[in-house]
Structure formats: structure tokens, C-alpha cells
């Protein structure tokens, strides 16, 4: 068999493997997202000071919606800086090992949704469907703001040696990260607050 033919077959085989990986993983990731009620947020204020927090969320066809108060640090931070890192994390009691809990992390751009917009109604309805009338009551309070988190790039970790990068507008392109979790970061519009130092 010629080297050229082997290369061709290898390319097709890799493509088929990637397709099978995508078909197997995407439903699992969607199920994982549906099973979580809250997401963890890493926000920063305009001076770059970080804050870790969490918020209940609802997933719609155009992103993740959260309703947060301006009285909370993350509520202020999201208005000052749209750059946010998000994590959905398997519960400790469900994990086979606390060292390898399943998790989905992604960089996102937080978009403040105007109260008088269709997007506001859509986001509140999605949250209300998950969490009930408390959302409707909170949405009426002037200090609560609705944000849509638009994912840019992500990472799904199933366990030891099982990290998969997610790219594309809806995080639907899957690649196995054989170099672990710390490979070269994907290009994005984000820059570190200390990048200029």
C-alpha cells in the first residue's frame, strides 16, 4: 500500500473518529448542562480585582441567562466588565473522585439585557420555567439585572486524561485535548488585565 493511500485512509479515519466523538459527547454535554441548576462565575471589576460567585441559570437557544442583583459584587462586576469565566461542576457526592469532577468551563461575554426588550422577556420566561414565580418577583425589582452569557470557547472535562475543547458559535465543535487542560489557549477577544504590564 502506498504512503499516499495510507495517509488518505488515516485522514478519513481521523475524521470519522472526530465525528463519532462529537456524536457521543454533545448529547452528554447537553445532559450535563440540563442537570445543573447553578453556574459558578469568575468576574472582575474595572480595576481587575477578581470575584468568585454563583448564580442560578437557564439555558436558551442563544445563551445562558442569569438574573443578578446590583447589591452583589458579581452584579456590579458584570456591569463594569463583560469578560467572565463560567463553570458548571459535578456535585462532590456524585463524583467518582473529587480530583476529577466532571465540569464544563467556558469564557463568555456578559450582555446586559434591556428591560424593555424581547430578550428580557425571553430570559425571564426561561428562568421562570426552571425556578418558578420567584423569578417573576425578582425581575420586577429595580436592582436585579438580566444578563445573557454568550460562550466563546470552552472545555469539558470528564475525568483524568479526558478533556475536550469546545469551539464554534454554540460550542459544538469538539476536540480531544491530549495535552491536558493547559494547552495553548484558543484565540479570543479576551486579554489579561496584566497583559500590558
What do these coordinates show?
This is Heme utilization protein HutZ. The termini are far apart. The protein has helices at residues 3-35, 73-80, 118-131, 133-140, and strands at 38-44, 50-56, 58-60, 63-69, 83-89, 103-113, 144-159, 162-167, 173-176. Residues 1-9 and 181-197 have low confidence and may be disordered. A hairpin with a 5-residue loop joins β1 (38-44) and β2. Helices cover 32% and strands 35% of the residues. Strands 1, 2, 3, 4, 5, 6, 7, 8 and 9 form a nine-stranded antiparallel sheet that branches. With 197 residues, the chain is of the alpha+beta class. α3 (118-131) packs antiparallel against α4. It has a single domain (13-176), classed as Roll (Pnp Oxidase, Chain A).
Short description:
This protein has 197 residues and is an alpha+beta fold. It is 32% helix and 35% strand.
Topology:
Blueprint: H1 3-35, E1 38-44, E2 50-56, E3 58-60, E4 63-69, H2 73-80, E5 83-89, E6 103-113, H3 118-131, H4 133-140, E7 144-159, E8 162-167, E9 173-176
Antiparallel strand pairs: 1-2, 1-5, 3-4, 4-7, 5-6, 6-7, 7-8, 8-9
Helix pairs in contact: 3-4
The helical percent reads 25-40%
Rg, please?
19 Å
Sheet-strand content, in percent, reads 25-35%
According to CATH, the fold-level topology is: Pnp Oxidase, Chain A
Looking at the overall shape, the CATH architecture is Roll
CATH class: Mainly Beta
The CATH superfamily is Electron Transport, Fmn-binding Protein, Chain A
* Count of helix runs: 4
Structural class: alpha+beta
Number of structural domains? 1
Tell me about the biggest sheet? 9 strands, antiparallel
Question: What is the chain-wise order of helices and strands?
Answer: HEEEEHEEHHEEE
**How many strand elements?**
9
Straight-line N-to-C gap: 56 Å
Oligomer classification: single chain
Low-confidence sequence ranges: 1-9, 181-197
The gross shape turns out to be globular
Average pLDDT works out at: 83
Amino acid at each position: 500500500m502506498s504512503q499516499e493511500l495510507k495517509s488518505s485512509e488515516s485522514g478519513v479515519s481521523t475524521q470519522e473518529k472526530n465525528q463519532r466523538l462529537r456524536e457521543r459527547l454533545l448529547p452528554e454535554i447537553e445532559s450535563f448542562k440540563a442537570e445543573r441548576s447553578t453556574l459558578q462565575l469568575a468576574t472582575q471589576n474595572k480595576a481587575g480585582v477578581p470575584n468568585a460567585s454563583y448564580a442560578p441559570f437557564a439555558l436558551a437557544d442563544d445563551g445562558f441567562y442569569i438574573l443578578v442583583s446590583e447589591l452583589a459584587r458579581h452584579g456590579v462586576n458584570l456591569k463594569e466588565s463583560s469578560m467572565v469565566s463560567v463553570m458548571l461542576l459535578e456535585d462532590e457526592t456524585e463524583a467518582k473522585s473529587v480530583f476529577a469532577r466532571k465540569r464544563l468551563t467556558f469564557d463568555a461575554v456578559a450582555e446586559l439585557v434591556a428591560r424593555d426588550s424581547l430578550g428580557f422577556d425571553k430570559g425571564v420566561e426561561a428562568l421562570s420555567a426552571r425556578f418558578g414565580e420567584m423569578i417573576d418577583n425578582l425581575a420586577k425589582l429595580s436592582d436585579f439585572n438580566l444578563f445573557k452569557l454568550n460562550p466563546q470557547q470552552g472545555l469539558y472535562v470528564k475525568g483524568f486524561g479526558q478533556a475536550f475543547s469546545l469551539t464554534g458559535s454554540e460550542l459544538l465543535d469538539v476536540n480531544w485535548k491530549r495535552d491536558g487542560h493547559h494547552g495553548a489557549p484558543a484565540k479570543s477577544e479576551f486579554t489579561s488585565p496584566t497583559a500590558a504590564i
